[in-house]
Design brief:
Layout (H helix, E strand, L loop, with lengths): L1 E5 L7 H4 L3 E5 L4 H10 L4 E5 L2 H14 L7 E4 L26 E5 L3 H7 L5 E5 L4 H11 L3 E5 L8 H17 L3 E2 L2 H13 L3 H7 L1 H8 L4 H6 L9 E4 L2 E4 L2
Parallel strand pairs: 1-7, 1-8, 2-6, 2-7, 3-5, 4-5
Antiparallel strand pairs: 3-10, 6-9, 9-10
């Protein structure tokens, strides 16, 4: 199994996706929030590139489908919940009351990165909180793996990079791998060196500073909990559900 790390969606090539398992990381905070939502029993999470598209789709569905509850709108603008949305982008907001609900989600970086990976044979989302579970599922698929960082507004993101390193290290524990590029070598080295300082590492990056500035510092504590959630999140037709 070959494992590559791509540090930004803009650097993806067709070769990174064709026949491969793509795993998307937006550790602060979209893919951590997705894992948290799936862990409490959210039925599905449909992703959108922007909040206007998500809001319009939710409104249309509410008009057309009167047989079940409308989806909850979740997302963020500058790290905060948009006006009129039910939920923001905090992993701490999900609890048992959300079991069975559908979520329509739009974020600045994460949902767009998921869309960018749609050409892969299998698309997953992952974070530090479900690194080991994701690695185990990747191994069961048997395909080569591309670990994709969402980045922050088109720039390299430290927290996503260390997240890819966590999954890469977990994959190594499941069997033989070939590290495909220097980014993967560096990501695994960073994770190994900072494994016991994950919270501090997440807080030190630009993304961490943004979360702190928004008054959401406890989200960093949540996101730094390595392997806290035994869930695998799979994307099919831009809808995320739990792997059974």
């Amino acid at each position: 199994m070959r494992v590559d790390v791509v540090i930004l969606p803009s650097l993806l090539t067709p070769a990174n996706l064709a026949g491969k398992t793509a795993v998307v990381f937006d550790v602060l905070r979209a893919t951590t929030s997705i894992a948290a939502a799936i862990a409490v029993g959210v039925r599905s999470i449909r992703i959108f590139s922007d909040i206007a598209s998500a809001a319009a789709a939710a409104k249309a569905e509410s008009r057309e489908n009167t047989e079940e509850d409308p989806p909850l709108l979740a997302g963020e603008v500058a790290a905060l919940r948009p006006p009129g949305f039910d939920l923001g982008n905090s992993p701490r907001q999900y609890n048992s009351s959300h079991r069975g609900w559908r979520i329509f989600l739009a974020t600045t970086n994460g949902t767009r990165a998921i869309m960018a990976a749609s050409g892969a044979a299998t698309v997953l989302t992952a974070a530090l909180v479900n690194a080991a579970a994701t690695a185990k599922f990747c191994r069961s698929l048997g395909a080569d793996v591309t670990l994709l960082c969402a980045g922050t507004e088109g720039q390299f993101s430290l927290e996503d990079f260390i997240g890819t390193g966590a999954v890469l290290a977990a994959l190594r524990q499941t069997g033989e791998i070939t590290v495909g590029n220097d980014a993967a070598l560096a990501a695994e080295a960073l994770f190994t060196a900072r494994r016991d300082q994950l919270r501090a590492t997440l807080a030190s990056g630009h993304g961490g500073h943004n979360v702190v500035a928004a008054g959401l510092e406890p989200d960093i504590d949540f996101a730094a909990r390595l392997d806290a959630l035994d869930v695998v999140c799979r994307v099919e037709d831009l809808e995320i559900t739990a792997v059974i």
